[in-house]
Please model this.
Amino acid sequence: VQLQASGGGLVQAGSSLRLSCVGTGRTINDYVMGWFRQAPGKDREFGAYVTRYGGSTDYADAVKGRFTISRDTVKNAVYLQMNSLKPEDTAVYYCAAAATYTGRDSRRYDYWGQGTEVTVSS
Model:
C-alpha cells in the first residue's frame, strides 16, 4: 500500500487542522493505521492509531482529548482531527500502516507516508 499524507499548515495556537492520509494500491482496512510525529531535533513519537475497520483507537497522552483518529472505508483514508493545537504540537506528521501489529511502536509499522508539516504559532 502507498500512503499520501496531506493537510498540514501554519496555524495559531488554539486552532484546528485535519490531516488526511489516502491509501492506494490496497485497502487500508487490512492495516492498523497510525499517526506519528517528529519535532525538530526529536525522535519520532506515537500519536494515535486505529485498528482494522475502526474497532478501537489509542492515543498518546500528549494528544488525548484533543486529537481524533478516524477511518473512511469508502475513500480508503484515515484522518487525524487536531483541535486546540499547541505550539508543542509543531512537527512533521506521518501516517503509517501496520500489517500484523497493533500498538505504538513505530518500528513495527510497515508502510509510511511522506509526512505533512504542522506549525503552531503562539
